Amino acid sequence: MRTLLAVLGLAIAAALLIDMVMLATGMRASFRSLLTSRGYELRVTPRGTLPFDTEATVGSASALVASLRAHPDIERVSPSLGSTVQVQRVDRARSAFVLGTQPDLQGEYTVINGRAPLGTDTLLREVIVNAVFLTALDATLGDTITITTGRSAQLRIAGTPTRVVIVGEGRFLYVPPGLPALSAPLAAVQGFLGDAGRDRISLAMASVRADTTSATANAARTEAVRVWIEQTHARVTAISTETAIVQVEERLAYFRQLAFILGALSLVIGVLLVTTLVSLSVNERLGELAVLRAIGVPRSGVLQQIMLEGFMLGMAGIIIGLGLGLVTAQWLNAILRDFPGLPADLDFFVWSAEAAWKSLAMLLVASTVAGALPAWRASQMRVAQALREEAIG
Amino acid sequence: MSATPLLEAFEVTRRYRTGENDVHALRGVSLTINRGEFVAIVGASGSGKSTLLHLLGAVDTPDSGRVVFEGRDISTLTDADATRLRLLRVGLVFQRFYLMPTLSALENVSLPMAEAGLGKVDRRARATALLSFVGLGERTSHRPTQLSGGEQQRVAVARALANEPALLLADEPTGELDAATGAALIALLQQLNADGLTCVLVTHDAALARSARRVITMRDGRIVSDEPSTPLVA
Q1: What are the angstrom distances between the C-alpha of A213 and each of A210, A222, B118?
Q2: A84, A80, A85: which is closest to A51 by C-alpha?
Q3: Contacts A381 to B, Cβ<8 Å
Q4: Which residue of A has its CA nearest to B109?
Q5: Which residue of chain A has the CA closest to B161?
Q6: Rounded to whole angstroms, how far apart are CA atoms A275 and A368?
Q7: Long-range contact list for A254-263, CB < 8 A, 24+ apart?
Q8: 3 state DSSP class of A209
């Protein structure tokens, strides 16, 4: 029972260590994956803002986009405009996030069912929506809904209601979970928003031509384009994927520090558990170990045997802890992903085999070494004295 | 029987601390044990008999004096050399059997052979033969918890014989056995001695000591008598 409890304790320490490693390395990996998933290395936003961080937009967007597309190192540009609208279907009304994009270039969503909306004119006819939207309005593909500009149900009367058809269901990469979202061609959304949208965009994503010979050369080229954009267009900020990751890492440094501290604590707890259990075991088996020494087992043999016990304890704890850690990571990830304002596809706990195995190997080494002190004490016992005390005891 | 000395002790003393007290366990003990002898060391608790056994078996070293085993002074051996000597030349049996609980009888007997570097096949064959010799040929795969006290002690004897020692030292080997089982164990030791193995038996039981051919009596860390055994009259 004592051993079982100790193994469970070790398993919890191992699970905590795995989770903290997944947390510390996962956010960066997940954010990078999110930013690079659609192949755009640069994000151009209104000066001083992050993508969709505020309601700010850039005017004369067509000139800006044309200028970007004219740059020889820019392969393609995807402009987009975001805003809040009111949507209604039958007796259900909700606020929703509308995103105007160029469907053939956009990097904001992937089509799950149906198709992307078509059209290049300023009339809003078709939209693609996310699953939250469908649920919130109890709608399905092919349904017609009413969209009105304005921020709340009370302001709905200020806009002109427009009827549109849902032609597809999409997975919106950067939209927080729980937020109904819809997308339509950029020109249509600009036209629908009126003065607030006329020739305006919230974001332009740019893809830089790849230099296949060198990742370093690609990074340098991206940085050069980024600098050119900011120097040429004073009203915008250009953010590269690397810059965005650095900014996010700065914002999430607290998480990493917490993960590091908790991970280190779990290692210490593991070491203390093994040392305690092996020490107790050695104390209870002094007679047995003394007889082993008496019949000719060398000090090193006793040392190895007891350290092996620490190793086996660590191994058992790690095997259970691995499963426990993955389950708790999923649970914690689900909680953290519900934080408002975060993209639905951002994961906090990401499985990295290399990082996990390294941390578990570290715990295994630590638990083996933790058995070293009691093992050394046992190997150094005075055999005759131990036998005498056993005989008296 | 050969009169060649196997083991000699010259004025050995041993003192140790028990709590606050200094215990003079041995106060200048000298003796010679020849090859093929069966010697019983008898005495009350605390008379120094177990301490003497530890010195004779290179388990402990004397504070003064010398112990010579097979012509070699074993009083000043390093721990590694003493361990090697015990492994290869001395068999030890204790009151508490102290078999490895996770190992089978066969594996327990094989343990000293593995330490001595004997190959797996040879170990298995010899351990099986030894267990058969002590009457446990059918119980080789049993773990200690599946064996009776007498059976466990016989496994311990087989373990002590694993590397064909020149000397078998038994410290109160019947202490945890009932009378009949104890008698069977002593008969086993007598048989080993009859086959030529030198045996030294430590016991506080004077009647049991008469099983040996020579009885050394100790009191307060000294030998007070050393004489041939007087067989019990039925």
Answers
A1: 9, 14, 61
A2: A80
A3: none
A4: A295
A5: A295
A6: 9
A7: A255/A23, A255/A24, A255/A27, A255/A348, A256/A23, A256/A24, A256/A27, A258/A23, A259/A20, A259/A21, A259/A23, A259/A24, A260/A20, A260/A24, A262/A16, A262/A20, A263/A16, A263/A17, A263/A20, A263/A21, A263/A24, A263/A359
A8: coil
Give A292's contacts in chain B (Cβ within 8 Å): 98, 100
State whether residue B74 is helix, strand or coil. Answer: coil
Sheet holding B64-69, edge to edge: B21-34, B5-18, B64-69, B72-73
On whether any CB of chain A is under 8 Å from the CB of B72, the answer is no
Decide if B87 touches A, using CB distance below 8 A.
yes
User: Chain B closest CA to A309's CA: distance in Å?
Assistant: 13
Query: What angle do helix axes A253-284 and A241-251 make, rounded to 10 degrees?
Result: 60
Can you list the alpha helix ranges (DSSP code H) found in A89-176?
Answer: 131-136
* Shortest alpha-carbon distance between residue A286 and chain B (Å): 10
Burial B49-86 (b: 16+ CB within 10 A, else e): bbbbbbbbbbbbbbeebbbbbeeeebbebeeeebbbbb
- What's the rounded Cα separation, in Å, for the pair A21 and B208? 67
Q: For residues A74 and A210, what is the distance between their CA atoms, to the nearest angstrom?
A: 9
Give alpha helix (H) positions in chain A. 2-36, 61-70, 131-136, 186-193, 215-232, 241-251, 253-284, 286-294, 299-337, 353-370, 372-379, 383-392
ipTM here: 0.91
User: Min CA distance, B59 vs chain A (Å)?
Assistant: 6
- Per-residue pLDDT tens, chain A, 393 aa: give them: 777 888 888 888 888 888 888 877 777 777 777 777 777 888 888 887 777 767 778 888 888 889 989 999 898 888 888 888 888 877 777 888 888 888 777 878 888 888 888 877 767 788 899 989 898 888 888 888 888 886 544 444 456 788 888 999 998 887 877 889 999 888 888 888 877 677 888 888 888 887 767 778 888 888 899 999 889 888 888 888 888 778 777 877 787 788 888 888 888 888 888 888 889 888 888 888 999 999 999 999 999 988 888 888 888 888 898 889 889 888 888 887 777 666 667 777 877 788 778 878 888 888 888 888 899 989 999 998 888 887 665
Q: How far apart are the first and last CA of chain B?
A: 27
Residue with tokens 């967007």: A61
Angle between helical axes of B179-194 and B149-160 (0-180°, round to 10) = 20
Distance CA A10, CA A143 (A): 55
Q: Do A287 and B98 touch (CB under 8 A)?
A: yes
User: Cβ distance A288 to B98 under 8 Å?
Assistant: yes
Residue of B15, B87, B94 for testing the chain A interface, max A β-carbons within 10 Å: B94
Token output for A134: 């469908």
CA distance to partner chain B, nearest, from residue A381 (Å):
11
Closest-CA residue of chain A to B57: A294
Alpha-carbon gap: B112 to the closest alpha carbon of chain A (Å) = 7
Size of chain B, expressed as the number of residues it contains: 234
Q: Rounded to whole angstroms, how far apart are CA atoms A234 and A229?
A: 8
Other CB atoms within a 10 A radius of the CB of residue B200 amount to: 27
* B24 touching chain A per CB within 8 A: no
Chain-chain contact of A387 with B86 (C-beta, under 8 angstroms) = no
**Contact, B87 vs B116, CB < 8 A?**
yes
| Sole residue written with tokens 């593909």 | A141
